[in-house]
Amino acid sequence: MKTAKKRAPRKSAKNAELIYGLGMTGLSVARYLKRNDTSAIYCDGKNEPPGLVQLRELDADASVLSPEEAKKVLKKVKRVIVSPGIPDSDVFLTEARKKGLPIASDVELFVDQAKAPIVAVTGSNGKSTVVTLLALMCAAAGQKAYAGANLGTPVLDLLDADKPDFYVLELSSFQLHRVPNLPLKVAGLLNISPDHLDWHVDAQEYAAAKYRIFREAQSVVFNRADEQAQQHIPKGVPSLNFGVDEPSDGQFGIREDNGIRFLARGEQLLLSIDDVALTGNHNHANALAALAIGQFMGLGMPAMLQVLNEFPGLPHRMQFVTRFNGVDFVNDSKATNVGAAIASIESINGFVVLIAGGLGKGGDFDDFARRIHSRLRCAVLIGEDAPLIANALQGLAPVHLADDMQKAVRVAAEMAEADDTVLLAPACASLDQYENYQRRGDDFCRAVQVLRS
To answer: What CATH number is given for 16-104 in this structure?
Structure first.
C-alpha cells in the first residue's frame, strides 16, 4: 500500500510579503513571489475577490484576509505590495504606513529585475495605441519587444520569458505615483487632461504623476502642445516633440503638400494621412509619438511606416462597427474620461449623436459640454452620472436619458440623420454597469447589430 505524501511544512509568515488587492496585478505578484520562493500573505477588500480561483490553483493553502484581519498581522510582514487601483488614502495603507511598512508596487519589483532596456509611455489618452504601435514596429524591425503593464500582460509576468530587446510599458498615473526609481531608455508623455480625481488628491497630483515619467529617463518624447512639459525634463536629456501642427527641424508633425496632408519629420514628408490606417487627428498624434519614440529606440523608419500603413487600431478605440441607414456607428468605449471623449468627438466629420455616461471620476462636465455641444445632434446618456452630464448640456444640446445600452442605441439611431455618426464615447468609467470598458463596448456593438436584424 502506498504511503500518502506528507505536505511540506508551510513557510513562516514572518517577513512575508503582503499582497494587497488580487485581480490581474495581485495574481502576477503572487506568481512572481512563488518563482522566487518568497512567502506571501494575501489581502483584499472583497469577500470573493477576482482571481481567487487562480490563486488557489497557485497556492492551495492560500487564504485571503480582509483588511481588518490583515491589520493584525502587519508586524509579521516586511512590506505591502499594493495593486495600482487602490489609492494612497485607503485606510489599510494608512495603517501600514503608521507601522513603518514600505508600500511597493509591481512596477517597482519589475524595475529591480529587468535586464533589458525599458521604454514607457503614459498620457491621459492614447497610450495603449502607442504601446501597441511600438511593439508592432519592433517586430517589423526585427526586434523582440514585450509589451505590458497597464495594457495586457502585467509587468512581472514579462520577466517569466526569455530576455527581449525591449520592454515597452504602458504606465498609468497610479503606477507612476508609486515607483521610486524608473530608469528608462525612452519616456513618452502623450497628453494630460484631468482624470482619476477619485484616486488622486487633485489635478496637480495627477499631473505630477504623469511628469514623473521623465525623471530618470535617458531620452524623452513629449507633446509640444503641453506648455508645462519641458520644465519637467531634466537638464541635458535629449528630447523630441510631436504635434498635429507643422514641425520644426527634426521634430514630428503634419505638413501639407499640394493639398495632401503628411506625417512629417521636419521638412521630410513621411507618409500621407490617407495612407495611415488609423483615423482621426488624435490617432495621427499617436502615430507621430510612436515614430519619435521609435527613433530614440533605433528602429528603422521604413519598418515603422509599414506598421502605420497597416494597423487599423485597437478594439473599443474609435472602432468602426457598421453603417446602417446612412449612419455610422463607432465604438470608443475606451474614452473613459472627459479629455478622451472630447478628442473622439472632435475627430468626427459631421454631426454626432453621442452616447455617454457612467462613473464620472470627478470629470469637469461643464467644460466638456462647452467644448462639444456645437458638434452634437443630441446626447443619449446612461449610467450613474448621466444626470451630471445632462445638467451640463442643458440649454446647449438636446438630451435623452436611457436605462441601458440597448435603449440608448435605439434612441440614438432614431435621432440620427443621414451622414451622422452615433458615437459611444462615454467620458466616464464603466464600473457602475459593466465589469470593464471592453464589456461596455461589446454591449454597444451587440445592440447595434440588433438594429440590423
So the answer is: 3.40.50.720
